[in-house]
Amino acid sequence: METIIPRIFTPQKYNFFLFGPRGTGKTTYLKQNYPDAMWIDLLEADIFRSYSAYPERLRETVLANPDKKTVIIDEIQKVPELLSVIHSLIENKIKKQFILTGSSPRKLKKTGADLLAGRVIKKMMYPFMAVELGKKFNLDNSLNQGLLPLVVSAIDPTSVLKTYASLYVREEVQAEGLVRNIGNFSRFLEAVSFSHGSVLNITNVARDCEVERKVVEGYITILEDLLLAFRIPVFTKRAKRYVVAHPKFYFFDAGVYRSLRPAGPLDKSEEIGGCALEGLIAQHLIAWDSYSGDKNRIYFWRTVAGSEVDFIVYGEDVFWAIEVKNTLKIRPEDLRALKSFKEDYPESTAYFLYRGRERLMKNGILCIPCDEFLLELQPNRTKIF
């Protein structure tokens, strides 16, 4: 019998959206925590046809089952017209909890999800965090295969990961008619993988995949709407030096990035591994903040002169500067950017994350093994060490 790994996500008492990319475990979590709920799975072809043809069927079904106190609608973006029915049911104050899952908020943005503003809380589910896996967490495996529950629990994780991006292209992008040319979009996915963990240069990506800049901008928006990628803005508060203007780009999971990033004789494995490591830290920080109640903002810091700190975490109780290096040893030049940031922002706490095994304090900078940092990163915990 498969062991279910408990998630950090906290059940809600009220109506809520639960968004997250495919494979993050939304369905598994809800079936475990709401075993008696009425379940409407819009991925089932017959159910999809039934509700898309006649959305009011939802009202009839809900009212006919008074004993069902929770109603779960899986992949709500497939039939966004159901939102107006749900809105009406909530307004009539029937004693039901609605849980609406989705892997793509894109359609909901265009079809009036604002109807439910203030009535349905928006929550997110992410790939596993290291703290959820505990002793099962392995840094090398996480860098190679990522932390998607769908992949982690697979008998053959590598095969599942290889098909993940193509499944998204086929089932999400093509089925929703989001792009006209799937071949162009596939080339874009490969080209933009070189931007993972880097300042995003849309012009360069457009040139590499041989499509117009505006098309690439649209493709990036699609990735974000499908929750497959995110951008991190530059930190500019009280800036004492000239900083860059463009954000950094990341895929939502290190394994998905590795599956898209081409590797050949001219590609250095340490470079790919370094980007994967930085992305792994990024996805953890995003999940940590979301599960903590979105109390903080995640930035990076890079001056025009080239000094860069990978992550700045800024909130009411948190001000962290985090540099990540895929190295076993700490060189003085590795700490130079953090020292510069500390000079400008002495209120910050500086962390240097690396692949070594020792925890060291160097010039006021706490140097920590990456896996140790990730295992200590827990929601609502603002002081790690």
Shape: globular
Q: What is the total tally of β strands? A: 14
Poorly predicted regions: none
Count of folded domains: 2
List the total number of helices.
16
Arithmetic mean pLDDT: 89
Give a written overview of the molecule:
With 385 residues, this protein is of the alpha/beta class. The protein folds into two domains: 16-124, P-loop containing nucleotide triphosphate hydrolases (Rossmann fold), CATH 3.40.50; 130-376, no CATH class. It has helices at residues 26-33, 45-53, 57-63, 82-91, 106-110, 130-133, 139-145, 149-152, 157-174, 182-192, 202-209, 213-225, 254-260, 269-291, 336-344, 370-376; strands at 16-19, 38-41, 70-74, 97-102, 121-124, 198-199, 229-232, 248-251, 296-302, 308-315, 319-324, 349-354, 360-362, 365-369. The strands form three sheets. It has a six-stranded mixed sheet, sandwiched between helices.
